[in-house]
Specification:
This protein is α/β, with parallel strands linked by helices and 168 residues long. It contains 6 helices and 5 strands. The structure holds adenosine-5'-diphosphate (ADP). The site of adenosine-5'-diphosphate (ADP) has 17 residues, from α1 and β4.
Length: 168
């Protein structure tokens, strides 16, 4: 019996304010499991992001240029509704430490309540990225620290443009 192969798509959602090497590490791992991964930048208005939705999506777009089966997009509203619109099967989230677990677990189970069909996959980054977060990168950049080991070069440039290159 012949079975038609259906393309497996995952959504990697987040604020990406801005995208870091930790995000990219998780993303690269996810590309090994799925035919296509969509990095979906959430509006996240309540988090008062440093960068606009357009700026964040643009930085993601540039960071993933070299990855053939990855796409950058942005969305507003319910994640599960977006996952359906994109005909995706799964949501990818990164787990850095136990501290991430409680919130991520609650989010995954709530999304399952809202849509039984969608699975959440947790992926762990390389250990050197477990301490990395967008929040910490912004703090270092604001204080004039060097973030070049933590983010792609164009993201570093965008941070310098926001904060200047020296201490505030
Ligand atoms: P959100 O506002 O949805 O938490 P983030 O952009 O902060 O958005 O994070 C998006 C996802 O990436 C989350 O699942 C988060 O746990 C994960 N993540 C963030 N930083 C890292 C990192 N350094 N290593 C692995 N996963 C990470």
């Amino acid at each position: 019996m012949t079975r038609l192969y259906s393309m497996r798509t995952a959504i990697y959602p987040g604020s990406f304010d801005p995208i870091t090497n930790g995000h990219l590490d998780v993303l690269q791992r996810a590309t090994k499991l799925f035919d296509r991964v969509v990095v979906a930048v959430a509006k996240s208005e309540s988090k008062h992001p440093l960068f606009t939705l357009e700026e964040r999506a643009q930085m993601v777009g540039r960071a993933i240029r070299h990855l053939p089966n990855v796409e950058a997009d942005s969305f507003e509203g319910l994640l599960v509704a977006y996952v359906e619109r994109r005909s995706a099967q799964a949501v990818v989230r990164g787990l850095r430490a136990v501290s991430d677990f409680e919130f991520e677990f609650q989010l995954a189970l709530m999304n399952r309540k809202l849509n039984e069909r969608i699975e959440t996959i947790f992926m762990m980054p390389k250990d050197t990225y477990t301490f990395l977060s967008s929040r910490i990168v912004k703090e270092i950049a604001q204080l004039g620290g060097d973030v070049s080991a933590f983010v792609p070069a164009h993201v570093r440039a965008a941070l310098v443009a926001k904060f200047g290159s020296g201490p505030a």
